[in-house]
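Hi support team,

I'm opening this ticket because the web form for multi-chain structure prediction keeps timing out on my end. I have pasted the exact lines I submitted so you can reproduce it. The total is 521 residues across two entries, so I didn't expect it to be a heavy job. Is there a limit I'm missing, or should I split the entries? Thanks in advance, R.K.
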Amino acid sequence: LSFFEWDGITSAEWAGTSNYRSLVSDSEVRAAFLHSLILTVFTAFLPVCVGLLLAATLSRAPVRGHAFFRALLFLPVVLPAVAVGVIWRWIYHPTDGPLNAALDAVGLGVLRRSWLGDFTWSLPAVGIMGTWVASGLAMALFLSGVQKIPPSLYDAARVDGAGAVREFFAVTLPGLRNEIVVVLTLSMIFAFRVFDIIFVTTKGGPGDSTIVPALLVYNRAFIYGTVGAASALAVVLAVVIFAVSLAIVRIAER
Amino acid sequence: MSTKSERVLTYVVLILFSIVAVLPLVGVFRLALSPADGSSSAIDVGNFQRAWTTGQFADTLVSSTIIAVAVTVLTVSMSVLSGYAFAVLNVPGGSILFYVVLLGLIMPLEPLIIPLFYDLRRVGFDNTYWAIIGAEAALYFSFGTFWMRGCFRSMPRSLVDAARLDGASTLGVLLRVLLPAARPAVLALSVILFLWSWNEFLLPLVLAPTGGIQTGTIGLASFVGQRSTDLSGLAAGAVIVSVPVLVVYVLLQRRFMSGLLSGSGRV
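Hello R.K., no limit was hit. The queue was backed up. Here is the completed structure from your submission:
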C-alpha cells in the first residue's frame, strides 16, 4: 500500500516512491521520531534504573512482605493504558490536579503550570507516565534474573567483605546483563509504538509537541484518509523499530 | 547479615516506591467517590452512574469480556499445541517455522493494521467480534508459542519417553502428562493474555470504527473525548475499566507472579 496514493475509498493510484520521499522533508514526521527518542529516556533508561534499585533491594536480604511489595510495585503494569492516561490527566490538571496543589503546599507555587498543555513540559509529563508503568515490568524481569545468579557468587563477595553497594556492582549488575538488554529492547520498542497513552491525554498536542509516529500513522490513515502516505510512515516505523532492537542486541553481545 | 541501617533503608526504598505506584490509583478512587462539585466530603456514587451511561460501560464491558475470554481461550489452546510441536515433536522444518513465528514476536503492529483493516472490510468482517478476536489472537500467538515451547522444553525428556512406552498417543502425552505439569505456566500465560486483550486499544479502535462493538477501553477514551472536563466522572470511568483487571490480578497474583518469574527465565 505504501507505494500507492489512496484515500481508502476510490481506486488506488500508483505513486512510486513519492510517499517515502515526502516523508523525508516532513517536519511533523521528524518531530514525531525525535519525540520517541526523547521518550526512550523515560520509558527505557529511568525504568532500568528504578527496576534495578527495586530488584536489588527486594532480593538482597529476606524482606518481610516480599510478595506484597512486589505485587504493589507491579500494579501499574496491569492497568489499561487508557485508564493510566485518565489518572495522569487528573494528576496534571491545571487547577484541580494534585501535582499543582502539592507544589503550592511546599511553597513552589511558581512552578505550577498546565503540565499537559505546556509546549516544553508536555513531553516530559507524558514520559513520566511511561516511567510509572514500565518500572514495575523492569523490576519483575530483573527479579527473575537475580534468581538465576548463583548464590555462591554472593557468598564469595561477602567473604571478601563487599558492602551492599559493592556487591550490587560486582555481582548483581553483571549477572543481570541479559535482562537489562531485554528490558531496554522492550521499552525502546514501547517508546516508538506508544499510542494509547498519548491518544487519551494530549492527542499529540499542544501543537505537535507530543506527536509520536504511531499517532501520526493513525491520524493519516483513518482520519485524514491518506492511506498510502500513512502506510509508508508505518513501514519506516517498523524498520526503525527493527533497527533499534538489532542495534541493542548487537551492542550487548560485544 | 545485613546491618540495621541497611534494613531500614530497604524498607524506606520499598515503601516509597510502593506509594508512588499506588497513590495515583488511590487518589483516583477517592476522586471518583467524591461529589462532582467538590462541595462535601461525603461519599457519592453519582460519578459512577454518570460514567456508566456516558462510557456505555454496560455494553462495552460485555464486549471486552467476550473478546478477552475468547482471545485467551483461543490463543492458549493454539499456543499449547504449537509449543508442544516445536518443543517435543521433531517436526521437519520445525526450526525454520519457529523463526517465522519469532518474526511475529518482533513485528510491530502498526504497519499491519492498515492493510488488515482494508482487507477485513473487503470481506465484510469489520465491526465484528471475529475481526477483533482473530486479530488479537494472531497478534499474541507468537508470544504464546514462545512461552509454551520454553515451558515444555524445560520438562525432562524422560517424562515423554516413559509415557510413550506406556502406549500413550501423541495427543495423550500432551493432555495427560505434559499439560498437568505445565499448569502454572498455562495459568500465567492466560492471565497475561487476558490483561493484554482487555487493555488493547488500537486494534478495537481501528477494526470497529462505526462503534458497533466497543470495548471498555474505547468507551473510556470516547468519554474523555466527550467530556474532558468532568474529572470525577472520568475517574469513575477509569475505575470501572480497571476493576476487572485488578480483580483478575489480585486473585491470581501469587501464581501469576511465580509463573512469570520462572517462565521468563526459561527463554
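A quick check on our side: The first strand of chain A starts at residue 4 and ends at 5. Let us know if the file doesn't open in your viewer.
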